[in-house]
Write a structure and sequence with these properties.
The structure holds 2 protein chains of 2 kinds. Chain A is mainly α. Chain A is 63% helix and 6% strand. A two-stranded antiparallel sheet of chain A has the order 1-4. In chain A, strands 2-3 form a two-stranded antiparallel sheet. Chain A has a two-stranded antiparallel sheet with strand order 5-6. In chain A, strand 7 and strand 8 form a beta hairpin. Chain B has 8 helices and 14 strands. The chains are: A mainly alpha, B alpha+beta.
């Protein structure tokens, strides 16, 4: 029997027991559009699988206990030192378990790649407008996954209980302790008494290996089912419309590409783990609250939060025998809370401004949505400024600067640079639209110079293909909402202030360089 | 919606361009061989992994330019694994790109909303279901159910109560008492004032009966930094100056911002710097905050010497050490 015939038998077997033929047929032929930027979400998914596999390996030896032991392993510099069983077992994995260090490094690298892929994937979704109706729900699931990822990553690198991670836990404890009214109670509950106690590592271990991975699986499943059911978005281009999907069928092309890509992501992660040391916990020593190492840095996805905390002005309120630490609450909880809520609500805010309630399956080119692109650039600038301040000590020592200058620079920069990024990005988008318009009207510059009989030099322009011309003009340019203060019946609208705000934002949002129409093109061809 | 009366027409999907392997059997065979070679490289990677596992001792270090000293065993395992995985992926993708169908397929997309009749039936079903249950009319049921559900959420919260003891006044207390000796950490030896030269720094802890079993949660509040300056270098109010001894000043080492160990001392400027968030404290002015996010100076410990010249605490800390909390009363 040939392979095809045998697989056919399997399909037959499955259908006789499930009756799934119709469903399977349809879904095996499901069409997936192809674009490199669609791989970013896949990288996140595959990193998650790598995290599950490598994490399971680590649990076989890791002992999540803060019981005090004397180190007797093979790493001589720590011989005879008192430490927690968690740290000792992490050292055991690194030095005595064959391949243990490799697996630890794969796990850590995969976590960094996972977070980077989530952020990059989110940027793709944001800048192309893929979050618009009907995908608002999936956008919110994505924000949920990002948040879980930050927490899960922090708990993960806190587990080895080395000097660096213990310092991170100390800071987390201070944030809990700073909560008004309930802070010291919550801190005592979380740590089973005074910091650091012996309860925290075992507790976060359960959360890290059971609770949060379970939540991840549930959210990822929902996220993917929605992608499947709503069908993937696609980039605009000839033959691509809001009503179709152009791409390759799941079986075999997409299956082979996606399956192969999993191995590539795993292979690259293993390569990094093999050649690039990460989190060498044996250099830090065991955690003790009285010590610290200079240049203490969190993992990159926590860096912006750390930077915010560092730049906060030293303000506490003391009144009626109580203390409120604004220097911790504002950068540690309030600003991140506002940011994440704003991100989750953005699809609804945008559709409120544009008044657009239709389904969208064709992606926007970022330049054709200048306001959104500028807002994205503004948010990224904010995060970059705070991230730079999160590494101010490292930057200061590497570039021979003073920490104070970097701190003051970012304290101002965090207010000044994001709006500047907004303005510049919006101008850039409009300029790019203008360039597109020029390209459609006057064609491509060939670089060939032509000397006219009377001596003038001109550059020869070549008309672009009809495909390209369509691609550059197929986007929609919606006019601003008209929200007159008085409606058609001569009655004043309710919520005057809200409408005014909406109208103003809508005008700003609709700003665009008019795209080339067929008439204009014909007119210019006649000349 | 927009002025697209005269938009440029969609020329439709561009014509499909065949690959070499689609038309030329020799090219297709060549592609097959390339895929097989890629899978073969992957197999070699696995061989490298096995060889490394068995034959390279796990304590062998080799020097590699740029990377420095590397554990050869881990490196062999890692590279073997990376090669074996990466080239499976390369092979599969090369296979898909050269030999699997690359004709773009167009599938139709249907609007997600259901036909109007279904939607109406659905909405009616929801309405009549809610109506039959009397959700609208029987407000007593609705409210009491809401209250019961809300209250039932309290029980798991209550059961979590035993996660930890109540803090009580613990956050405000340390092990320092009047007459507690200062001992070195590490070493656990009492210190004489003459042990510290001008410019020196030492970490100290309170002397306890069983130093072998000192708890980390005690260190987290008790750690103290001793610094010796020339007495005339201080710029302190009289009561704070009285808490020093002959140029030796003692501060809590636990940062008043978020509790990290304030461990970096700049001898030239006499500044203490917390490596976590760069709060900077001026030692000569009683650890006054001169930079960074911390809002309070480091608490100062009142020290003196006993008859034999050993440093002791004259009194406990007069304020809670470490980061702020709601119950902290700074007045």
């Amino acid at each position: 029997m040939t392979v095809e015939a045998r697989l056919g038998t399997v399909a037959n077997y499955v259908d006789e027991r499930t009756g799934g033929a119709a469903w399977m047929k349809k879904n095996l032929q499901k069409v997936f559009p192809d674009h490199w930027s669609f791989l970013l979400g896949e990288v996140a998914l595959y990193s998650f699988v790598i995290l599950l596999l490598s994490g399971t390996f680590l649990t076989f030896w890791f002992d999540p206990s803060q019981r005090e032991v004397i180190y007797e392993g093979s790493y001589e510099p720590l011989e005879g030192i008192k430490m927690s069983a968690a740290y000792a077992s992490a050292l055991h994995i690194s030095f005595e378990v064959r391949g243990g260090l490799l697996m630890r490094q794969i796990h850590h690298w995969a976590a960094l790649i996972f977070m980077a892929a989530i952020v990059a994937h989110m940027m793709r979704v944001f800048f192309t407008g893929a979050f618009r109706k009907p995908r608002e729900g999936n956008w919110i699931l994505g924000i949920g996954l990002l948040t879980l990822g930050i927490v899960e990553g922090f708990l993960g690198y806190s587990l080895p209980d080395d000097l660096l991670s213990g310092t991170g836990v100390r800071i987390a404890e201070a944030i809990i302790q700073a909560l008004p009214v309930v802070g010291s109670y919550f801190a005592y509950f979380a740590f089973g008494g005074a910091f650091p106690g012996e309860a925290f590592i075992p507790r976060i271990y359960t959360v890290h290996v059971l609770l949060l991975p379970g939540a991840f699986l549930a959210l990822i499943t929902a996220h993917l089912m929605l992608v499947w059911y709503q069908k993937h978005t696609q980039y605009p281009g000839p033959g691509r419309t809001e009503k179709n999907v152009v791409g390759y069928p799941l079986m075999p092309t997409y299956m082979a590409k996606a399956g192969g890509f999993f191995f590539i992501v795993f292979g690259v992660t293993a390569f990094l783990a093999a050649v690039a040391s990460i989190n060498p916990i044996w250099l830090y020593g065991p955690y003790t609250p009285g010590q610290i190492s200079a240049g203490s840095q969190p993992d990159w996805y926590m860096g912006w939060l750390d930077g915010l905390v560092r730049m906060a002005p030293p303000i506490e309120t003391q009144a009626f025998g109580h203390t409120i630490s604004w220097n911790i609450l504002v950068p540690g909880l309030i600003i991140p809370g506002i940011l994440f809520t704003g991100m989750a609500l953005y699809p609804f805010i945008e559709s409120w401004i544009t008044g657009d309630k239709r389904e969208h399956h064709l992606l926007d080119r970022p330049r054709n949505a200048p306001n959104r692109t500028a807002l994205g650039a503004m948010s990224l600038t904010f995060v970059m400024v705070t991230l730079i301040n999160g590494g101010n000590d490292i930057i200061a020592t590497h570039f021979d600067l003073s920490i104070n200058q970097i701190m003051w620079g970012t304290r101002f920069g965090v207010f000044l640079l994001p709006p500047l990024a907004f303005v510049i990005t919006k101008r850039l988008c409009l300029s790019l639209q203008r360039a597109d318009r020029d390209l459609v009207l006057h064609g491509r510059e060939t670089g060939t110079l032509l000397r006219l009989p009377h001596g003038e030099f001109v550059e020869v322009h070549e008309p672009i293909s009809p495909e390209k011309a369509y691609f550059l003009t197929s986007h929609e340019q919606a006019p601003a909402l008209e929200l007159p203060a008085v409606d058609g019946h001569g009655v004043k609208r309710a919520h005057a202030l809200r409408n005014k705000l909406r109208a103003r934002m809508s005008v700003a949002n609709a700003e665009a360089i008019p795209k080339v129409s067929l008439n204009e093109l014909k007119e210019i061809e006649h000349h | 919606m927009s002025n697209e009366i005269e938009a440029i027409q969609d020329p439709g999907l561009p014509a499909h361009v065949h690959r070499k392997a689609d038309t030329d059997p020799a090219a297709a065979n060549r592609a097959e061989r390339q895929v097989a070679i890629l899978f073969g490289i992957s197999a070699l990677g696995t061989v490298l992994l096995i060889v490394s596992y068995i034959f390279i001792p796990d304590d062998l270090f080799i020097f590699i330019p740029v990377m420095g000293n590397q554990n050869a065993h881990q490196l062999g395992l890692g590279l073997g694994m990376a090669i074996s995985l990466f080239f499976i992926g390369m092979g599969a993708i090369h296979w898909a790109k050269t030999l699997m169908p690359d004709t773009e397929v167009v599938a139709q997309r249907h609007e997600l909303r259901s036909p109007d009749s279904d939607r109406k039936d659905f909405v009616d079903a929801v309405k009549s279901g809610a109506g039959a249950a009397g959700l609208g009319r029987r407000s007593l049921i609705k409210r009491s159910l809401g209250a019961a559900l809300g209250l039932s959420a309290l029980s798991p919260l209550l059961l979590l109560r035993d996660l930890g003891p109540l803090p009580g006044k613990e956050l405000e207390k340390t092990s320092w008492k009047s007459g507690t000796y200062l001992v070195t950490d590490p070493g656990n030896r009492r210190i004489k004032d003459s042990d510290l030269e001008v410019g020196a720094v030492a970490q100290v802890l309170p002397e306890i009966a069983d130093p072998e079993h000192r708890k980390l949660s005690d260190i987290a509040k008790d750690a103290v930094l001793l610094i010796r300056l020339r007495p005339q270098e201080f710029n302190l109010e009289a009561d704070k100056l009285a808490m020093t001894h002959d140029g030796i000043i003692a501060f809590s080492k636990i940062c008043s911002h978020m509790g990290c160990a304030v461990a970096l001392y700049e001898q030239q400027t006499k500044h203490l710097l917390c490596p976590c968030h760069q709060s900077t404290f001026d030692v000569t002015r009683g650890a006054k905050v001169i930079f960074g996010p911390s809002a309070r100076p480091l608490p100062q410990l009142d020290i003196t010497i006993d008859d034999e010249g050993y440093l002791v605490a004259r009194q406990p800390f007069s304020e809670p050490v470490g980061p702020s909390f709601w119950e902290r009363n700074s007045q």
